[in-house]
């Protein structure tokens, strides 16, 4: 079975690295990005199987990036996440 690739996008580097470490234990090839612009670049270059992306980031938000990513690579699955709570 081929190794599945995951892109973790979060402006909080600690959160991104924690998720990357956990996913790596389960055999996923993980790349991280710290902004929407970086995520678009990675998806354009590598076409990961899955993107885990924070909703709230400075600059373009995760929701704005989602629109761009789905236009570039509609086959890539995206899960939006947030640690924001009220």
Topology of helices and strands:
Elements: E1 5-9, H1 13-25, E2 29-33, H2 36-46, E3 50-54, H3 62-72, E4 77-81
Describe the model.
A four-stranded parallel sheet has the order 2-1-3-4, sandwiched between helices. Strand 3, helix 3 and strand 4 (77-81) form a beta-alpha-beta unit. Helix 2 (36-46) packs parallel to helix 3. It starts with a strand and ends in a 5-residue tail after the last strand. It has 86 residues and is of the alpha/beta class. 24% of the residues are buried. It is built from three helices and four strands; from the N terminus they run E-H-E-H-E-H-E. It has a single domain (5-48, 56-81), classed as 3-Layer(aba) Sandwich (Rossmann fold), CATH 3.40.50.
Tell me which CATH architecture applies here.
3-Layer(aba) Sandwich
Helix content estimate: 40-55%
Distance between the termini: 42 Å
**Mean pLDDT across all amino acids:** 92
Strand adjacency order, main sheet: 2-1-3-4
Could you tell me the strand content as a percent range?
A: 15-25%
From the 3D structure, determine the CATH topology. Rossmann fold
Structural class of the helix and strand makeup?
alpha/beta
Low-confidence stretches: none
Top keywords for this entry?
86 residues; alpha/beta; Rossmann fold
């Amino acid at each position: 079975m081929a190794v599945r690739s995951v892109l973790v996008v979060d402006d909080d580097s600690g959160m991104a690295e924690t998720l990357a470490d956990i996913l790596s234990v389960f055999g996923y090839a993980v790349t991280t990005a710290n902004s929407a612009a970086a995520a678009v670049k990675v998806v354009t270059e590598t076409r990961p199987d899955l993107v885990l992306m924070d909703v709230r980031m400075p600059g373009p938000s995760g929701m704005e990036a989602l629109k761009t990513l789905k236009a570039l690579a509609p086959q890539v699955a995206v899960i939006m996440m947030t640690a924001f709570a009220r």
